[in-house]
Amino acid sequence: MADLVKLVEELSKLSVLEAAELVKDLEEKWGVSAAAPVAMAAGPAAAAVVEEVEEKTEFTVVLKATGPKKIDVIKVIRQLTSLGLVEAKTMAETAGAHVLENVSKDVANDAKAKLVEAGAEVVLE
Questions:
Q1: DSSP type of residue 3
Q2: 60 and 119 in contact (C-beta within 8 Å)?
Q3: Quick one: which of 73, 57, 71 has its CA closest to 122?
């Protein structure tokens, strides 16, 4: 095996043009390329950073306040749920009560519209 230190010293004596020609000759002889591989800077890493935001599919209808028409709100609560009169009245009198839980967006919006029409203050969570 050749002495690597001597080889490095000899190669250091080459001019830039001679070194470029040497590289070209070695590439042809060995069938390789001396060009540095270029990494994809924003390839897979960028894809990992972008996350899909999932749309909320389940909602809870929360009664914030009954409003002036308590009896109408109780009637709507009974229509929306299977609660009896006493349970519906208790729910109507409880701020923050969950009228419906884990329902679809359409069902939640429909329930909210009915409760608001009856005079209640409602939010969807």
A1: -
A2: no
A3: 73
For the record, the structure tokens of 7 come out as 């080889």
Which tens digit of pLDDT belongs to each residue from 41-84? Answer: 555 555 554 455 567 888 999 999 988 999 999 999 999 988 89
Closest CA to 10 of 22, 26, 25, 27: 22
Paired with 97 in beta bridges are 63
Please report where in the chains the tokens 């969570």 appear, as a residue: 125
C-beta contacts of 36-40 below 8 A and 24+ residues apart = none
Of the candidates 84, 125, 86, the one whose C-alpha atom is nearest the C-alpha of residue 112 is 125
Q: Who has greater pLDDT, 92 or 55? A: 92
* Cα distances (Å, whole numbers) of residue 95 to 12, 32, 57: 85, 76, 24
In the structure, what pLDDT confidence band is assigned to residue 8 with cuts at 50, 70 and 90? confident
d(CA 66, CA 94): 8
Break the chain down into helix, strand, coil percent, rounded to 5: 50, 15, 35
